[in-house]
Amino acid sequence: MEAWLDSPAGRYLLAWEQAQLDAAVADVFGFHALQLGWAPLQGLRANRMPQRWLALPHGHGAAQLVCDFDDLPFESNSLDLLVLPHTLESAADPHHRLREAYRVLRPEGRLMVLGLNPASLWGLRQRLGGRFLPQSGEFIAYWRLRDWLKLLGLELAEARFGCWRPPLQREAWLARWQAMDRLGATWWPVFGAAYFVHAIKRVHGMRLVGLARPSGARRRAPSVAVSSKASRLRLPAND
């Protein structure tokens, strides 16, 4: 996948997704943020939380945490922000992986998901055997993901589509179709090649009045883990 992201189409997709996350995470506050997968995408770089991790399923120079995405080494209700860039598409059971994400999020925690849209020109070319995109899993339709979020109790805060240019791999050809991004956003927004979804974990009967640090000295949260077999990380209490 990383080799494909270095292609003209891959850089086009990555630039759009980076812009969405930079804008979305900048004003999300808390203490603990986690990105699951996709090292080339710096999903948390615009966020200011004191603890930010990039987790990968295998050893990698950029990884700060190596773990099983279906069994996260965090206690329930412990993360303020979780970014899933195409993380569900590579899962054998994407619904289970989404439930695991829900488990580790705090009440009012933010979940941000990036996915490839099967209802797009890119998805159509892939289904017809064009092999335009790497075979990295099942593309999950936005409508299907929205239903999963609702069933889990995650409230949809916003959804955006992008990348309307045709599935082309030459820089010059992609540049010629630049106007499609403007036209697509106006006339056929839901047919963009990629989507960005921002959801909030709502817990009924709970009211949060603010984030407060403990009166005593705070323990420093661990920033590195090397195995998902270790016990779940105990993060500092913030309330």
TrEMBL record:
Keywords: Methyltransferase, Transferase. It comes from the Bacteria. Residues 220-239 are annotated as: Disordered. GO terms for biological process: methylation. One of its GO terms (molecular function) is S-adenosylmethionine-dependent methyltransferase activity. Pfam families: Methyltransf_11. The keyword Transferase applies. Residues 64-112 form the Methyltransferase type domain. This is Class I SAM-dependent methyltransferase.
